[in-house]
Amino acid sequence: MSFDRLLERIVETQNPTVAGLDPKLEYIPAYLREEQFRLHGRNLKGASQAILAYNKALIDALCDVVPAVKPQCAYYEMFGYEGMKTLHDTIQYAKSKGMYVITDGKRNDIGTTMEAYAVAHLGATLVDSEEFEAFGGDSLTVNGYLGTDGVAPLVKLCNERDKGIFVLCKTSNKSSGELQDRQIGDMPVYRVMGEMCEHWGADAMGRYGYSAVGAVVGATYPEQLEELRRAMPHTFFLVPGYGAQGGGAWDVLGAFDERGLGAIVNSSRGILCAWQKEGCAEQEFAAAARREALRMKEDITQHLPAITLP
Description:
decarboxylase, 47% helix, pyrimidine biosynthesis, 14 helices, OMPdecase_AS
């Protein structure tokens, strides 16, 4: 199962964190941008190539200490087809370095349309009699609020192709409670969604006790995070909200089980912009990202037991 591979990488690196690759042009050092503009023009292709060069340098600096990366599709889609090629190339490069890739697309539809999203990001497209992977991520974030019709096609593909999904459950944004905290009977919506994740994952269990159906649960709501960990023993958590959104190490601890497993904590801006925060030379951006990733690892793991597999 896909998350088995992620869990093994987390144990190998003793690091339950993921680097979010959400690059804006202003995050990229000027020398790197100008180099790509000279080669490709000051246009969407030049910008996309600058992002790819930036991402590759970050992956090189992080691949032995961080188990996974999480590219957010929107930051690539805004550069058109050149940006989408950079998304593809980033995913393939990260996988070539042994990293697990979470594609952050928050896809949401039903039937054959959802099947098409599943094939695009997790499966393979059939052209005549030959299959081609369009993007090739290991897992995908999805919006489950269309119910089973929107998730079942993904679960089927997860079982067939060793993939995983993370369903939005209790998200880290400020207004999430407008819907997710509403009551359905005596239970908030996020708890209902949590129960659905457990149900959807029941037929897609991995060897370490977690299913292929994970959940997105934000660090900015630590009480709910702890509540959901108790209620969802077989659901692996993707935890956004650490760092720039205000979540700290103490806020994420409730996501983990007694072995230090069960969750992976995301940092995007904190890692991507570490060189700007440090005020170091822009040529040191990748080294600064590595320093921040190691700082984050220590910040979280100092409060966890030694991370071990069952």
